[in-house]
Specification:
disordered N terminus; wza like fold; 5-stranded mixed sheet; elongated; Outer membrane lipoprotein wza fold like; 3 domains; 191 residues; 30% strand; 10 strands
């Protein structure tokens, strides 16, 4: 009997390991919520309130205006967080408002690739991209590029940092952690 219990325990352990390998750990976080960026266009509506339905452009400063609520800073907020903030602002005027916020057009998520690439420029993205994908969007590097001196410039809270990227390492499957997901506003510099 004890042998059967050990065998069953081993089966459950193997099944658990297989499930984690195929589907990831049970506590793995899902994809991060989309963060609203300047340039995005949102559709905001309040149920049964025809005067409170509008298409709103997020201004370059990250702000937007909505009737009865006034000015809101939406920059970096998730859609759900903004919906909640609008609902709280409307509660003064409407009991239990049902607010809907949808992303109509992505206009703020952009990365820049400059330097010795075939098509330097600004590249909008709607799903996460990494450094190698951004280089691909730019048509790859020219033959004169210093591929092991690539830098990713990132500005957070007014401070700019430079992250190193060695193309040849990633190309050979080494140091893959440097192939980071890019954030809106990042600049990939290929000298």
């Amino acid at each position: 009997m004890l042998g059967k219990i050990r065998l069953r325990a081993r089966e459950f352990t193997l099944a658990g390991l297989l499930a984690c390998a195929l589907f990831g750990p049970a506590h793995a976080d899902g994809p991060a919520a989309y963060e609203i960026q300047p340039g995005d266009v949102l559709t905001i509506s309040v149920w049964k309130e025809t005067d409170l339905q509008s298409e709103v452009l997020v201004r370059p400063d990250g702000g937007l205006s909505f009737p009865l609520v006034g000015e809101l800073n939406a920059n970096g907020m998730s859609i759900d967080a903004l919906r909640g903030q609008i609902a709280v602002g409307l509660k003064k005027f409407i009991p239990d408002p049902v607010v809907t916020v949808t992303l109509r057009q992505i206009g703020g998520n952009r990365v820049y690739v400059i330097g010795k690439v075939n098509r330097p420029g600004e590249f909008p993205f709607s799903k996460p991209i990494d450094v190698m994908q951004a280089l691909s969007l730019a048509g790859g590097a020219t033959s004169f590029a210093a591929l092991d001196d690539i830098r990713i410039l990132r500005r957070r809270n007014g401070t700019q940092t430079a992250l190193r990227f060695h193309y040849s390492d990633v190309e050979k499957g080494r140091d893959l952690e440097q192939n980071i997901p890019l954030q809106s506003g990042d600049t990939v510099v290929v000298p």
